[in-house]
Fold this sequence. Notes:
The structure holds 2 protein chains of 2 kinds. Chain A is about 75% helix and about 0% strand. By secondary structure, chain A is mainly alpha-helical. Chain A has a domain at about 60-275. Chain A is globular and about 75 Å long. Chain B has helices at about 5-10, 15-30, 40-65, 70-90, 95-115, 120-145, 150-160, 165-185, 185-195, 200-205, 210-235, 245-255, 270-290, 295-330, 335-345, 345-355, 360-370, and strands spanning about 145, 160, 165, 235-240. In chain B, the strands form 2 sheets. In chain B, strands 1-4 form a two-stranded antiparallel sheet.
Amino acid sequence: MSTSSVIGISSTRWGKVLQNPSAGALLLVGVLVISMSIAFPTFPSAINAGNVANQMVFVLLLALGMTVVLITGGIDLSVGSIMGLSAGVGAYSINSGAPLILGLLAAVGAGAVLGLANGLMITRLGLPDFIATLAMLGIARGLLFLWTNGVPFIGYMLPEYYVISGLERPFGFITVPIIIAAVAVLAIIFVLRKTSFGRHAYGVGSNPHAALLSGVPVDRVKITAYVISGLMAGLTGMLMAGRTTTVAPTMGLGYEIAAIAAAIIGGAALTGGRGHALGAVLGALVLSITANAINIAGVSSTWQQVVTGSVLLLAVVFDRASALLRERSTRSAGRLAVT
Amino acid sequence: MSARERLVRIASIDGLPIAAALVAAAVFFTAASPFFLTGENIRNLLIQSVFVILLAAGMTYVLIVGGIDLSVGSTTGLSAAMTLMTIMNGAPWPVGILAGIGTGVVVGVINGFFIAILQINAFIVTLATLSIGAGALQVITSGTQLTGVDSETFLALTKGNILGIPTGLVITLVIIALLEWVLLATPYGRSLFAVGTNPQAAFLAGTSIRRANFSVYLLSGVIAGAAGVLLASHLNSVQPGLGQGYELSAIAAAVLGGIALSGGRGSVWRSLIGALFLATLSQGLQLVGVDPLWFNIVTGASIVIAVAFDRATQHFIAGQLRSLARKQSHDISGGGLEAEALRSPAAAAPIEVQPAGAGNHEITSGARNI
């Protein structure tokens, strides 16, 4: 990094900005906010900002867990299914008379256990991450369908649950889910930057073999990453169960795509060793703002998926261009250093 | 040949575990339900599985070069919609077929452009095109009712028979045979194995990595387009969400057939067996009276078992070969070429990556032919 910043394009301020892995997401957010604010005066309002923030909570929490998994070089396709099954566990616990806090804990715990199962399949059975979590996607979803027999859970909405899920807003548009998400972001930042697990995670993702030889407990790091991802999925499921007031067996279907998209837009890479919590925030923000923009612009919501896919494509093309730029400046710096 | 050597030979036969599992499942369901082994049931089973069989065949090509194509399901749905829409707007049915396959070509070219030319991760690119394709299908179907095509010839694509065999199945089998032949018997097919096993070595041997990558995504798109045409003919109606999840079934079929996501291994017939196994499970479970809700769980569990089993087999083969080599290097009379090959550690090492046996041969001859 120090050689690349000595000379060449990276020495300009723009060069530096463009080389940040999250630059694309930041640029997208900026362009979207400015163009939407000019075109639609209702866009830059406090109420709308609150809407965007409340919408992005679910994808943000999933993207945080996904970012941790991506950093270790893995991928978690099962978060959508884990979300649904954990919400089912929470709703069932409350319906069987457990107090709210126990129900919430049961959901988060169920998510962590399913994440642990992912981690064990990958490290103990040696399954590729993609295959193990693909199997979990099918199994967790199947279990929820089988358990509910296709009939949604209802009747678990205790009075406090309305506040926790953000349906009732005693503090204005800063809802409890937003506070929970903010705490989660800070927690993941802390875990990735200040704990040995965090440093090991980057090492395992960059070069698992070298990490193993340096004495990093690779398997334990991988398992922990999947447990964190499952835990986040459980939390998300519980918040969504409160928001929608029913747990349909299809809850969370397809959410893995949004979570992966947000993490990648935010600068995480499938090759591992890259990504950070604030990137996940930016990625979730991009997806949430585009959804909001489509809505405000009066475009039919059927276009939502097309736009999400295009934004994802745009983000990776930008990231690719920025990586090429980084490579070129490193090379030119190297050449100059030689001469 | 000792019993141990024979066991190693048997364990290294391509696609044996999944073929055995398919036979076992078929025997089990035949014993459990008198309706399983009836002409009508087998016919239904095969017609319903041609879509996943086709997609799995295209996926095989993509997996062999070490890529992945998540967009095939939504491309199938979109292609079906384009086919029906074209025919409903008064065009003759061959134009409808062209529209469907053309949709696949467009998606394939987009995937190929971003993955092979711009060198962006295949998972992300095809995830994005999955989203765009599924969204486009939703946009198309939200305004119009796509159903009720009355062209007899078009509907006969799946409802008719050729020599008593359903036309759709005949078309699928022809495509499958062609794909397997190209993969195993042409320099192009062998170059794909080379690219998937070691892209750098393949590049140095004169293979264009870019062309290999571009071609497999184009092929996968075209196959998805064809599957969409057949699906349109089979259902004669298109709903939003059509084709959703087919990509996972196709990947599952390929993985069950023993094809590695890491590339360099695979053949079309193994994916075919994998797809047939999934179809047999789904049909059989229903006949036995198991709630279809179980299907997701059984599929997921069988994927885990298949891959774990495949890994254990490879481990076993590599271990046995190593110990055989050790034994024979002590045994002076056991010289000869075979023992010579087994003795060197280099012979045992690549086997861990390439237990297919034929794999190494294919790569060297592929490199020679280019």
